[in-house]
């Protein structure tokens, strides 16, 4: 009787241990499925041609690591130029998009603003029905933006989803706070700059991250609107060299007397360089992400 009672008492503990064990195994396997491809990309960028050939292109640990691929890519050429283009487009585009989204969202959050309901309906309409490729191309052509960097920024400067998120956050700001500032003589612009924006850093950081990632990862708009290859962003260069298997060696300058790094190492180096800027940008906004992403979803 005593043994049976001990077995019954220990069964819930054993069940919890078993559940925790298989969940840990699944979590570890899931992490490995995500991490191993990234490790392979980074390892291949440091590997030499012999190891790449012996491993069939799947390198997990370079035996003789070399920075030759990175030195070749960063020494000039189309890859380095495309990185500069992408950084410029991301910085300028994100600044314009965030400023435009803040202004539009603040106007839509004020119930007494002139024409805010029809404008809100227009924003929601664009969220549900996106324009097609041909109308967008004809509009960009009509505005004279073809083969310019503005074609990569202006057509996507405002995202309706980000406007709705920011509008919801602005509407949650206590009206008493805005009324107190208005009583003190502040106008709408001063209220926006001195009160609304400082208390909305979380949602602004999240929206800025959304815009920055979208600008950085975008390649289709450049493929559609940019004809000059010297103006291509890095993601279009990655697509051309890595996805389409175009030779990279001819586009990478090599110093006299040096051998050209392996083709596979050059491709993986370009991939790594295309990911690093966003990885460096994200940690500064991570602390605001959870708060900003849930803005407007919790009341009371």
Highlighted features:
globular, 13 helices, MetI-like fold, 300 residues, mainly alpha
Can you identify the CATH superfamily of the largest domain?
MetI-like
Order of helices and strands: HHHHHHHHHHHHH
| Helix fraction by DSSP (H/I, runs of at least 4) | over 70%
Biggest sheet features: none
> Could you give the distance between the termini?
54 Å
Computed CA radius of gyration, to the nearest angstrom:
26 Å
CATH architecture of the largest domain: Orthogonal Bundle
The number of domains: 2
Q: Compute the average pLDDT.
A: 80
CATH class value of the largest domain: Mainly Alpha
Number of strands: 0
Predict the CATH topology of the largest domain.
Answer: MetI-like fold
Give the strand content.
Answer: under 5%
Structural class: mainly alpha
How many H/I helical runs? 13
Low-confidence stretches: 296-300
Shape estimate: globular
Lay out the secondary structure.
Elements lengths: L1 H45 L2 H6 L13 H7 L3 H32 L6 H13 L4 H10 L17 H12 L3 H9 L4 H12 L1 H17 L2 H6 L8 H10 L19 H31 L7
Helix pairs in contact: 1-13, 3-13, 4-7, 4-10, 5-7, 7-10, 8-9, 10-13, 12-13
Written account of the structure:
With 300 residues, the chain is mainly alpha-helical. It has two domains: 2-54; 68-293, MetI-like (MetI-like fold), CATH 1.10.3720.10. The chain is built from 13 helices and no strands. Mean pLDDT is 80; it is low at 296-300.
